[in-house]
Amino acid sequence: MRLKERVQSWPWxxxxxxxxxxxxxxxxxxxxxxxxxxRSIREAQVPLNWGWVALSELxxxxxVLAGALGWWLMLGALGQPLAWxxxxxxxxxxxxxxxxPGYAWQLLGKAYLTRQAGVPGxxxxxxxxxxxxxxxxxxxxxxxxxxxxxxxxxWLGTVSLTxxxxxxxxxxxxxxxxxxxxxxxxxxRQPKLAPDVRLMPWRMLAAGLVxxxxxxxxxxxxxxxxxALRPLSLDQFGLFxxxxxxxxxxxxxxxxxxxxxxx
Length: 263
Known about the structure:
By secondary structure, the chain is mainly α. Helix content is 73%, strand content 0%. The protein is built from 9 helices and no strands. It has helices spanning 3-8, 16-43, 50-77, 84-97, 103-116, 121-145, 162-189, 201-229, 237-256. Helix 3 runs antiparallel to helix 8 (201-229) and helix 6 crosses helix 8. Residues 1-8, 154-159 and 257-263 have low confidence and may be disordered.
């Protein structure tokens, strides 16, 4: 018996109450983490605007729902008609998992839960790769769009980066828009890459637009949360957007880019 078949034969993996218990435990740890940080804020006597905090939470919820919609559209683009509620549940629980060990568990959890929902393994793998590509491209485009001028390195002196920035913005936008059609063409020309998987590029493009919307909502949530602590101008939204995009992309790079072993 192969390792995969042996693991799938373990009865506790298919226990519904066990899965619910693990999911509840993840939520509990997240709540405890938030409570501990909230206590630290109170001890530091940082004034909070609770109206802005509530608005930030609504933006965060909107970002998560946008991600769930993007995942549902991506599966639909690959011909996998998973119900919206099931796709949203998978995305939400996988999204919670990343707050403990990191992005790797979110990706693995989403793949596992989607596979358990009956989506074929090859379609799940293709959806994960394509969604990750759109997530990275969308973050890079927003980061380039919101690049603050104060971050220009000092050694550049008076050299202007305006032309390069606009070239990066336009180039990333074209790549993001052309990715669904390039992926569909590649899968059609090389069917061995993902047998029995057919990609609908327009639906994947819709998924990409929703992912960018999720980036914007998460950036807005971050800016609003900052405004809850101290007054901020709308001009600073770009700085918050760039900081959020850069930090999340660096977190993804830790997962994607292999580390170098020291001798």
